Amino acid sequence: MKKYVLFYIISVLFACSLFSQSSNLDSLRMNAMIVKDTLLLKRILHDSLFYIHSNGLIETKSDFLTSITSGKIEYEDIQIQEKKQRTINRTGRSYTGVVCVIGKYKGESFQVKLAFTSYYRRQGKQFKLIYWQSTKMTD
Predict the structure, then answer these.
(1) Nearest-CA neighbor of 120 among 11, 42, 33, 46?
(2) What is the DSSP letter of 139?
């Protein structure tokens, strides 16, 4: 009986750790986008990433990393205003919310308030962003 209780406690702690990791990844990823930390982004982004920007631009992981490193997209500030988590299953987490973004796209400044959906899929012991879609909100 004690073995089962210990196993249950370890399982719960592991699940909480994975949830916490996925919950904080949006903030970690957004900070990496601001400082152009492509090494961290490579680790956080899933190889099958499908990233839909609010302007309709669709990028793969490679495209997104190139946009960051080339300066095509420059993020100056990103603030999450709202965020709700939905557990899809033990390997997937979905988030919806609102984020304010300030930056430049092809040298043109922008400041937008976006509604977003993000989906993280567990790969091994880590959750990675596999899907992002944002839509510009009107005031």
Answers:
(1) 46
(2) -
pTM for the whole structure: 0.79
DSSP string, 35-98: TT-HHHHHHHEEEEEEEE-TTS-EE-HHHHHHHHHHTSEEEEEEEEEEEEEEEEETTEEEEEEE
User: pLDDT tens, 77-115?
Assistant: 999 999 998 877 878 889 999 999 999 999 999 999 999
Q: Are 97 and 78 in contact (CB under 8 A)?
A: no
Q: Are 118 and 93 in contact (CB under 8 A)?
A: no
Q: Is 120 exposed, middle or buried (0-12, 13-18, 19+ CB in 10 A)?
A: buried
Q: Report the alpha-carbon distance of residue 23 to residue 109 in Å, rounded.
A: 29
Euclidean distance between CA atoms 14 and 100, whole angstroms: 32
Domains delineated in the chain: 2-136 (3.10.450.50)
